Amino acid sequence: MFEIIDLKSMRLSELQEIAQKMKISKFRSFNKLDLIYQILDYQAANPDTLKTEKKAVTPTTSEENSEVQPAGKAPKTRNFERNRGNKP
Question: What are the helix and strand counts (H, E) for the chain?
Answer without folding.
Answer: 6, 0
